[in-house]
Design goal:
The complex is a heterodimer. Chain A is of the alpha/beta class. Chain A is 30% helix and 28% strand. Chain A has a single domain (2-239), classed as Rossmann fold. Chain A has helices at residues 20-30, 62-72, 75-85, 95-100, 198-213, 224-240; strands spanning 2-8, 35-41, 54-57, 89-93, 103-105, 112-113, 120-123, 129-137, 140-148, 151-154, 162-166, 176-177, 179-181, 184-187. In chain A, helix 1 crosses helix 5. Chain B has helices at residues 2-19, 27-35, 39-44, 60-73, 88-98, 119-126, 141-144, 147-159, 174-180, 280-295, 300-309, 336-346, 395-404, 418-427, 441-453, and strands at residues 51-55, 78-80, 109-113, 130-133, 166-170, 188-194, 221-227, 230-234, 247-253, 260-266, 269-275, 317-323, 326-331, 354-359, 385-391, 412-414, 434-439. The two termini of chain B are 34 Å apart. Chain B has two domains: 2-309, 3-Layer(aba) Sandwich (UDP-N-acetylmuramoyl-L-alanine:D-glutamate ligase), CATH 3.40.1190; 317-462, Protein-Tyrosine Phosphatase, Chain A, CATH 3.90.190.20. Classes of the chains: A alpha/beta, B alpha/beta. Bound molecules: zinc ion.
Chain lengths: 241, 463
């Protein structure tokens, strides 16, 4: 089996160590004998909507976010939408999450338009939501670290990734974290997210492989270290918030 | 009157804390600042030689200590904030410590390392005559905000510098070259930089922040990369480029056990320098400290001697003998760039199978988000490790990171309790081998305490 991963804007949207998600997904595929390629796609690089099974889209600084939003207008955005419609899996964190939504509305200045793959929109907030979090989701408990001031609101097409047991979540109001729409996942979860949540990593991996190979069963891996890190993060979240 | 009361109260608190064995705290400074808000301005104005300031994400503590050692060698009495408590109240505590009850200072000049976030306020309060700016990296974003924001704040602060102020800047860091543009008339900018092609890296690492031109946003072109985003760069689109430094480091020879040797070309001719701490980043630190001292008119002989006699700063890099030829080498890690440099230093000898201990805490001073571990290129350790023991509040996160870096899980063990973890590692360390320990900031403090109980180090405020 083969897995094609695209790292969107690896050079601009790569703060907070979110590349841990790519490392985790590709290692967990390779350890199972699945041949894995990671392709970095930045501003100006075209996207072949049939090529990639999994897209990762991380967070960046404000200035970079404008360059990226600009690049997503037109063909590139359309290609990503086509890829999603054909079943490719997306994981977007923080700034990437906001840009997969309809728009980001800053305090002053024009809206930053997203591509609308997720039925969500984000409004600049004046409070930084920061700290260890615990999320209860349909994929099990997730542990992570949130760090954002944008407040994201879901429309009817999207459903939350989970409930915030500890943490502010999407907007510090409705108690939810993240958004899911078909195979597109967005959230505010750093940490990195996937290394300490191997069950969720494997769920995404299965979804990504399904596009080419239909339903697949993954060989179980020894997750002793991963789950030890997961439990320690649960404890840290309870101790620190 | 307020000042007198603030000084007396602060000093009394310092006395009590020292007697009860709690040195190096910022608390007395906090109290004094509450009583007299501009106590720092008032105290520094009493220093006959004025003040100098060191800022930068990486290496400011070592640089400050190098600079201080040079000044002390030249017979200048320096008030300097030694214990790494470098916020405003820490600076105030430092000066209180050296003031008489009536506020008379024994030092000739002040030398302060200052946090990224505290710089504008500290600059306005202290009015330094010289500022040494090392570098600007992404560091603990949850504390300081984004790099663009910090750079803007620094630029605003630089615009307000008094004529006659000297700015000593690292030419190899684009942010520093950019900041020089904001210096008002009458402020003297002096650059230092490295020019030694054999040390150039093949490509920019993952953790790099400044691949884009700060002025126009075009991808920058590098003719040489030395550390992270530092090197010889120019923008193909606008006039932004590395300035030609007045102080140029050449012919660098690196050694982990001996420290480094290099030639520093100065406007007055070349100097052969030796610095007793390893790693290329310490060459930068030494070059910055030397350029600053020479710009102040310190004689070359004092610079050479000062650097040579310099002993490692608490916690930055420290070597401790255990007997039977066994050693501990401690190197503080606090961000991806610094950690990558430590790894580069440790993997210098390809034949060596490293025995390592990595201690990661996630308290406020460490950065509460451990995501940054995923920006460190631990992949370079694959095939180079004898074994590794992790410790601290995030021991398991660290163990997991190493597993995903391709290190055989059989070589990785973890134990959160630092004392237990250290004992396990020391017990399996063979004779004539070194245990390389890389702790985060609060982990280093705990480690020092444990080593102190074992009789291996002295409390840092007594150094
Ligand atoms: Zn330019």
């Amino acid at each position: 089996m083969k897995l094609e991963i695209a790292f969107l804007y690896h050079d601009l949207m790569n703060i907070y160590g979110d590349r841990g998600n790519i490392i985790t997904l590709s290692q967990r595929a390779r350890w199972r004998g699945i041949e894995t390629t990671v392709t970095e796609l930045s501003v100006g690089d075209p996207v072949d909507p049939d090529k990639y099974d999994f897209y990762f889209f991380g967070g960046g600084q404000d200035k970079e976010q404008y360059a990226v939003a600009d690049d997503l207008k037109g063909e590139k955005g359309a290609a990503l939408k086509e890829a999603a419609a054909k079943g490719a899996v997306f994981l977007a964190v923080c700034g990437g999450y906001q840009l997969l939504g309809h728009y980001y509305r800053p305090d002053n200045g024009p809206d930053l338009l997203g591509i609308g793959l997720l039925d969500v929109h984000t409004i600049a907030g004046n409070k930084r939501c920061i700290g260890n979090v615990i999320i209860q989701s349909e994929f099990g408990t997730l542990v992570a670290f949130e760090n954002h001031s944008g407040k994201t609101y879901l429309g009817p097409q999207a459903r939350p990734l989970g409930r915030s047991e500890i943490g502010y979540g999407n907007n510090a109001e409705d108690g939810n974290e993240g958004a899911i729409q078909n195979n597109v996942f967005g959230c505010y979860l750093h940490g990195s997210l996937l290394p300490k949540n191997p069950h969720f990593a494997d769920h995404l991996l299965k979804l990504a492989l399904q596009r080419r190979y239909g339903p697949v069963e993954l060989t179980p891996l020894d997750d002793t270290v991963e789950m030890a890190a997961h439990r320690a993060a649960l404890q840290r979240a309870r101790d620190t918030r | 009157m307020r000042q007198t009361l603030a000084i007396a109260t602060g000093k009394t608190l310092l006395e009590i804390l020292h007697r009860t064995g709690r040195g190096g705290t910022a608390f007395p400074g906090l109290v004094a600042t509450k009583i007299a808000p501009h106590i720092l301005r008032d105290l520094t104005a009493r220093l006959p030689g004025g003040s100098a300031m060191v800022i930068g994400t990486n290496g400011k503590t070592t640089t400050t200590r190098l600079f201080a050692t040079i000044l002390e060698t030249a017979g200048v009495k320096v008030a300097n904030n030694r214990s790494g408590s470098n916020l405003i109240r820490g600076l105030t505590s430092t000066l209180l410590n050296q003031a008489s009850l009536r506020g008379k200072l024994t030092a000739d000049m002040g030398l302060f390392e200052v946090d990224e976030a505290a710089f504008p306020q500290a600059q306005a309060e202290i009015q330094p005559r010289l500022i040494l700016m090392n570098n600007l990296f992404r560091d603990q974003l949850d504390r300081y905000g984004e790099i663009d924001t910090i750079r803007k704040r620094w630029a605003e602060s630089i615009k307000t510098l008094a004529p006659g102020t000297k700015l000593i800047l690292n030419a190899d860091d684009p942010s520093m070259a950019y900041l020089a543009r904001f210096a008002p008339e009458g402020v003297k900018t002096v650059f230092f930089g490295l020019d030694h092609p054999p040390l150039a890296l093949a490509k920019l690492a993952h953790a790099v922040d400044a691949a884009k031109c700060i002025v126009c946003g075009t991808n920058m072109v590098y003719d040489a990369i030395y550390i992270s985003h530092m090197g010889h760069y120019h923008c193909p689109n606008c006039d932004f480029r590395r300035p030609d430094p007045q102080f140029v480091v050449k012919e660098v020879k690196l050694s982990v056990s001996e420290g480094s040797q290099f030639v520093l070309e100065t406007p007055d001719g070349p100097l052969e320098l030796k610095v007793g701490v390893p790693g290329l980043y310490n060459v930068y630190n030494a070059a910055g400290a030397s350029a600053a001292a020479l710009s102040m008119g310190i004689a070359t002989g004092h610079v050479t001697k000062g650097l040579e006699k310099f002993k490692s700063v608490f916690g930055r890099i420290e070597r401790i003998a255990l007997g039977e030829g066994r050693h501990l080498l401690l190197a503080l890690v606090k961000n991806p760039v610094g950690f990558n440099e430590v790894l580069r230093m440790l993997t210098h000898d390809p034949a060596q199978k490293l025995k390592m201990m990595v201690i990661i805490n996630d308290l406020y001073a460490d950065g509460r988000d451990v995501s940054w571990l995923w920006d460190v290129d631990f992949e370079v350790l694959a095939d180079r490790l004898g074994w590794v023991q992790t410790g601290g509040l995030r021991a398991t996160d660290m163990a997991n990171r190493l597993k995903y870096a391709g290190i055989d899980p059989a070589l990785i063990s973890w134990e959160e309790d630092i004392a237990t973890s250290l004992k396990l590692a020391m017990d399996r360390l063979p004779a004539n081998e070194t245990l390389y320990i890389t702790p985060t900031y609060t982990a280093m403090l705990q480690l020092r305490e444990i080593l102190q109980k074992m009789g291996l180090v002295v409390p840092f405020w007594e150094e």
